[in-house]
Amino acid sequence: MNGLVMLIIAAVVLLLAYLVYGRALAKKWGIDPKKPTPAHEFEDGVDYVPTKPSIVFGHEFASIAGAGPINGPIQAAMFGWLPVLLWILIGGVFFGAVQDFSALYASVKNKGKTIGYIIETYIGRTGKRLFLVFVWLFSILVIAAFADIVAGTFGGFNAEGAKVAANASVATTSILFIAAAVILGFFVRKAKPSGLLSGIAAVVLLVFCIAIGLTAPIYIAKSVWLYIVFAYIFVASITPVWGLLQPRDYLNSFLLVAMILGAFIGVLFTAPSINLPAFVGFKVGNNYLFPILFVTVACGAVSGFHSLVASGTASKQIDNERHMLPIGFGSMLVESLLAVLALIAVGSLAVGGKLPSGTPPQIFAQAVAGFLTRLGLPENVIFTLITLSVSAFALTSLDSVARVGRLAFQEFFTEEQNDGKEPGAVVKFFSNKIVATVATLILGYFLAILGYANIWPLFGSANQLLAALSLISCSVFLKKTNRQGWMLWAPMIIMLAVTFTALVFTIRSKGGKLFDGSFNFGIDGLQLIFAILLLGLGIMVAVSGVKKLAEKQTA
Fold first, then answer.
1. What is the rounded radius of gyration, in angstroms, for the C-alpha atoms of the chain?
2. pLDDT tens digits, 61-85
3. Is 280 a residue whose pLDDT tops 90?
4. CATH number of 151's domain
5. Which domain holds residue 182?
6. Which alpha helices (H) appear in 431-517, and where do they start and end?
7. CB 78 within 8 A of CB 280
């Protein structure tokens, strides 16, 4: 298989999906450009902020992508390129994009509230409380996995203690990005520049940060970076969105789009061969195609995390309802294109059908740098920029998921306030945003120590289960509001089957170690506890939702 042919097929499929299927959904559900969005109705300068669609798209895309569409397809390539490609395209269009758009749509139509609120309104309060616990646990998994990835890409020394210049340059640039984001945020907030002027300002800041990063690398060990990363996401999760989250995501979106364009151009002009078999088998080692392929590809095809971003932050920034389609449906399709590029990257570096060594971000950066080097660009600079882009993806997701986890924790303890009762001292304490953030990040840190490789399978299972729960809640919302939602039912059922199977496999695998003496109470114990909790919570929320979905609609 040729990488260029694969890319052309994917690009055509995804473009047609947006123009035909996405527009059909928008027409079927109903878009009202004249209706004030929650960003205007409840503008508070913190979470509800009417924002230009280009900036919200940048936030949405940068937040949902993370390292997932690079990590997932590269790891799943062990089954061969064909099943991975098929799942990215089919899943991305009919599962992922539909879920993202429906979650954003339902949230905008419900005061910009979260999926938890939608569950409470259309399914019941018990379902909501269970869902909030699930979201909180899931957020911890995302924080742990992505924080470890980011700290790894910043680490200035390898296992032998030698300096890694590319990582150190990425670290410097990323720190400067944060300062530049704050400057840009205040500039946009106070000066209210045009889209063109804000774009020019962003590009100038980007170039400045990258230039300094390449010439002044910071060499700090990964273990120290882990502390710094957690300190950063603590601040990011409690800062008003316009002060850090929006401008940082906007800045990153330029870098991330440039990375995708660079990879696209590299494949276009080099037409690399895919040195992997089309299909290896239904079982590779101890991994079965079902359900491992689906939970491993994860974000490149469908991700429950996207529904949290769409309903947790993006819906509160939508300036006009007509922006929901490109932001919700379109951003997922771009992520699927990135996943295809990651598949081409790993296939181009494979030798004799065997996957290359290294972490997925390293494999992706090496492959893209190789493509562009053949076009005459300097390899060390390109490798550094691609690594920077990957870390920017992951760090941006950390910004959002830390906020989502904090909000879920707070929302769980504010139920009494919703009843009109005076909250007690315990409720006031746990609903404090500082306390909620610390509680979320402490557990995330302890899991991060285990390393992303030990967390990713569980993260993938929880992520896909969250997608199923989101699809259930959006299906109920569409039914209760007399809108057609049948297109969500098949993805919902399939995702439930995939994730419940994967979690049962994890529980059986880890539980079996209790009896053969190989059980590690650190790595295995935490994974077993999380798997049991996620499975139990998922079943209870799913049952509540399916019951509501099966009820006859009353007049």
1. 22
2. 877 876 789 989 999 999 999 999 9
3. yes
4. 1.20.1740.10
5. 3-19+52-550
6. 433-448, 452-480, 489-516
7. yes
